[in-house]
## 1
Amino acid sequence: MKIYYDLHIHSALSPCGDEDMTPNNIVNMACLKGLGLIGVTDHNSAKNVRAVMEAAQGKIKVIPGIEVTTREEVHTLCYFPSVDAAEDMGELLRKHMQNIKNRPEIFGRQLVMNSEDRIIGEEENLLINAINLDIYEVQKETKKRGGFFVPAHVDRQSYSVTSNLGFLPPDLEVDALEITESGLLEYSLKYKEYEIITSSDAHYLENISEPQNFLKGDGKITKKILENLYKI
């Protein structure tokens, strides 16, 4: 059984996300592309996760997630077993934000939407800033909520654990590593002892992944997904 996925998708809540990245547009594009599983991972917030999950009912499976920017400015993907757990993590992150206000004319609007794609609010705090929790604290808080922890795009030259820290700390407990498609060959060999996922980091509808990456069911994350989401 192959389940095609894209576990790194931003909605219009992320300031860098296009305003067309509404709950229904995300779900429908993923379905059109033949995906079976998506992850919603806005920057430092889960405020649009519930809307996407409601829009996806009967169409596609959704993993609630957040892309957290740690104190070291490392991007990390945090996935949760329920929308409640993701929203609880979001509330924790809010308490540790720098409280710098967004400037929509520069960074873009940060739109909170319902499952019918209606705008119900705007996030005032700039979500792309680092929060006041280090990478170990973010990992711990993710695990506390039953989630799994994945350093994002580790092959990139900015905002990755390898670029900002210079290495992947051996004592950092990770469930997998995300590697971009362009770095997959080199970095999957370099980190062959880790489970690897590859997603789009889509900020525009057309960037959502084509059905080429699929879950194999032989790693921590994939087993957890298959058992919890697909009940197999």
Note: The chain is about 30% helix and 20% strand.
## 2
Amino acid sequence: MSERQWRNSYQLSQEQLNSLEEAEECMEMLDIDKAEKILLDLLEGDSECVPVLNNLAHMHGRYLSDFEKAVEYYEKVLEIEPDNAWARDERRRYARYLTYD
């Protein structure tokens, strides 16, 4: 069976790709603390890495129900990539849960 081929449009290193994959696997296994550590370590190396920011936003929204933090990460993605429709839709989705006084 061959691996799925996709374009590495963010030109991530193999180490970054491996770490992202590990973080995603940790999320799936509900090892959120480990996933968060991996993603935050990656973010330290590149504070504008869109795939890392997207994964952090997803983790905060879906697994931690920290909608404010999820929106914050998606907004950072949109500062970097204003045309990122997926981040825009997800930000809107989680923003619905926020209550502003």
Note: The CA atoms of residues 14 and 87 lie 24 Å apart.
## 3
Amino acid sequence: MNERSKLLKKVQMYSFAVTDASLFLDTHPDCAEALAFFNKYRKLYDEAKAEFERQYGPLEICSEQNAARWEWTDGPFPWELSAN
């Protein structure tokens, strides 16, 4: 597995943890342990996503873009097999 794939897997893992925790918090909003888990993994997700985008370009259409050039189409897109 190349470095790009490893970093993308890390982003996906943290994204899953954040999404799962947010769904739990929807039904347990006063759970301090779940909120701490959410905050921990949201920070890790933000860091991993920023690192991926710094090295390989935007993951989402709404990611910060280079003001001088539209980088979204520089591909491969994260969902393309050639990217993994």
Note: The helical segments are 3-27, 32-56.
## 4
Amino acid sequence: MDSVNIKEINEKIKDESAFIDLLTMEVNKVIIGQGSMVERLLIGLLGNGHILLEGVPGLAKTLAINTLAKAIDGKFSRIQFTPDLLPSDVIGTTVYNMPKNEFSIKKGPIFGNFILADEINRAPAKVQSALLEAMQERQVTIASETFAMQEPFLVLATQNPVEQEGTYPLPEAQVDRFMLKTVIDYPKQEDERIIMRNSLKGQYEVVKAVVSIEQILKAREVVKTVYMDEKIESYILDIIFATRYPERFGLDHLSPLISFGASPRGSINLATAAKVYAFIKRRGYVIPEDVRAICTDVLRHRIGLTYEAEAENITSEDVIEQIVNKVEVP
């Protein structure tokens, strides 16, 4: 691809991504000091992927997705997952209408643009699978009728890593359907001071809709035009293959620690997320730093660890770090 085209793409991306700053500013009115989480939400939104947020209670996970929905003028639904939840509580059910003497369909909370699945690991597998059909197929079947989901359709699932009593761990095949798994940490001390002051005053900023759903859908199409060189493609594939066959990359010591590597969904999502990251940074082409910046969030839930790794307290993040440091950067 010649440099003239790159220049054209760059100019186009700069124009088309102008709303990112506006949207980030609006969300940051309410969400203090969680810049990384907000960025990941945007990557999921523009990359048409779902996000699994993990963090202890009280880190504004629910507030962040609600605020994003308000800033985009989208429909927000919150589903609190509990052990007694049924699939029909999520997708909807048929209801008998006595005056008309017929069954009508009552749609569930899954029909929205931004779905918050709060504490997803609290519900049994049946409910999780109902949610996953909507995530993967972008459709829901109630009785004999099939309904397509509205676009954009973004599922944000949260899970609490601390309390494991009464939880159902998500199977690997389910977790693999999330584009990103983002681990949220505590805010910095100065940020928490602002959060505390705002809460004590009872003064909360009002979030206005600054971006339309049409703009988001258009931006998704523009993201696809971000240029990715063959060398970057090879770099992504090297990272993915190093999770499957570490010995090929001189990482023999990782072989006994990894039970399975990232699936092809990993390479697709890493490429997509890198393109979106470049778009958010107002750039029309992907550089290795984009891949490195998003790599951990895309892969941390896609690498299986052996008992040996757990015995040595080695996490998937440690494995990813070693792989990224070893694989040659183009």
Note: The chain has two domains: 18-217, 227-326.
